[in-house]
């Protein structure tokens, strides 16, 4: 016969058991960590590619450093197994200067119709017109972040694609002559439509390297290397490629980079994705740093002599690079 004492003991034991079971389910129920499909993006490697570009000095069109860095980018893309095309052109700057410019294109899986376009500008600005010191306004800048960072991430993407191919075709374009727009100190050159910027991408959008070139979508990387950078949903990207923005930002969150990719609206920026959207009609987004605490609303050292390697973070390069990789390896 069960005594009251025994019944209580059994009940107690049973309740412990349910507790234990509940605990067990509680431990296995939490959402499993997201399993990424892409190979590891190496932030050190991307940092090295930024440093290499900066070591050439400013990469301003019509200078020897610009030619040398362009040659380096072509040879790196070839080393990473891309099919490389150089689009040489002469474009006219706001002041009439003829710029000898070169868009550099590296393609993978040329047989694939389904393609993703990844791009960044590789030239650097001839003016530090946002520098605190007016004596610096006419000096070219190193462009570690503005120019170097996007290209550095994409060279690391190229290196990884060579070791493991994604299922889609990829075209990487390094656009030239993005950053030769009217300087802030020139009052006699009105540029109401911002047409003096993005000369290389404007040229390519009208004269693509492949006749009628199409991609499913495009991703522009501009100023993606600063320590603590935050990327917001840029205006043109939202207007032309909202689903691409959603895909990239949600992928970043899945990977644990929600502290870099903020799901809020940022500014509206004339950048290389504008001609790609408006002329080539490829829905394209701009991953670009906004900083509400900065006078310019961009990176704090934007268009100043301070845009050097000291502002570049391997962690930021990794957050952006891994996100872009994951997006392209998810493509079928
Ligand atoms: C304008 O200043 C009109 N657009 C910013 C694009 C840019 C310049 N990105 C890097 N440098
Ligand atoms: Zn710039």
Briefly say what this structure is.
The chain is of the alpha/beta class and 332 residues long. The protein has 9 helices and 8 strands. The chain has helices at residues 4-28, 43-55, 64-79, 144-163, 199-206, 235-240, 242-254, 273-278, 314-330, and strands at 83-92, 98-108, 115-121, 169-175, 217-222, 231-233, 261-265, 284-288.
Describe the structure.
This protein has 332 residues and is α/β, with parallel strands linked by helices. It contains nine helices and eight strands. It has a six-stranded mixed sheet, with helices on both faces. A two-stranded parallel ribbon has the order 6-7. Helix 4 links the parallel strand 3 and strand 4. The structure holds N-[2-(1H-imidazol-4-yl)ethyl]acetamide (AHN) and zinc ion. Zinc ion binds next to loops.
